[in-house]
Amino acid sequence: MTPPDIAIIMAAGCGARWGNYLGITKHLLKVGIEPILHRTIRLLSGHIGEVWIAAPDDIRYQHVDAQTLVVDPLPYDADKFYSSRELFPGPHILQVYGDCYFTEQAIETMCQPVDSWSLYCRRGASQLTGCWYGECWGYSVPLADQDWYLKCIRAVIDKQKHGELTRSGGWELRDELQHARHDPDDHIVEIDDWSEDFDYPQDWERWVERFAANVA
């Protein structure tokens, strides 16, 4: 078992569902005085020596305490995983979503040693945040699984491209990884706390209200 050596924060999406709400990209939403992207960098840096952001060519993503891999937003959902492929294969890699608020415990869990690919997620609704659907948080991929992991990403992109899938996000990648080698659910690590992904403005507003009432 090995812990991640490199963390990649995926922050290159176009944010179509967010719709420029509040006039800011959702990666830079602030909890207190700290943007969530900066928080994720800070927390990951406490566990992992090399932290990257896969982000567009935008100065807001370059003046941060991480290395920036400039990538272009691409049309298929799984491109967010595939766009940082130049950092593969290499040491153990952790890919996490850049538009999520993560608790310290969630980051610590994702930085733990694993012996094969692992998906960190919440598989259903959250009683804490009020979100009524599951969320993927990130993938941990040791060196031995990386070539195969990239092939599975490419496979789900191709399936969406040819109309076999309507989307090719984190859940579809999980299905491809599991079916390709008949892997069981022991590759799934559940994280169900105040961590949340903000796909839509109402996700953010609901989370802020509940978080303020219960935590802040």
Descriptive key words:
216 residues; alpha/beta; Spore Coat Polysaccharide Biosynthesis Protein SpsA, Chain A; seven-stranded mixed beta sheet; two-stranded antiparallel sheet; 6 helices; 11 strands; 20% strand; globular
Q: How many H/I helical runs?
A: 6
Number of strands: 11
Molecular shape: globular
Strand content: 15-25%
Task: Please give the share of residues in helix.
Answer: 25-40%
Number of domains: 1
Strand order of the largest sheet: 5-4-1-6-9-8-10
Overall pLDDT confidence: 90
The major β-sheet equals: 7 strands, mixed
Report the end-to-end length measured between terminal Cα atoms: 36 Å
Structural class of the secondary elements? alpha/beta
CATH H-level homologous superfamily name: Spore Coat Polysaccharide Biosynthesis Protein SpsA, Chain A
Q: What sequence of helices (H) and strands (E) makes up the elements?
A: EEEHEEHEEHEEHHEEH
Would you tell me which CATH topology applies?
Answer: Spore Coat Polysaccharide Biosynthesis Protein SpsA, Chain A
Question: Are there runs of 5+ residues with pLDDT below 50, and where?
Answer: none
The Rg value, from CA coordinates, equals 16 Å
CATH A-level architecture: Alpha-Beta Complex
Task: Give a short synopsis of this structure.
With 216 residues, the protein is an alpha/beta fold. The protein has helices at 36-45, 79-82, 104-110, 146-161, 170-181, 201-214, and strands at 6-10, 30-31, 34-35, 50-55, 67-70, 93-97, 100-101, 118-122, 135-141, 188-190, 196-197.
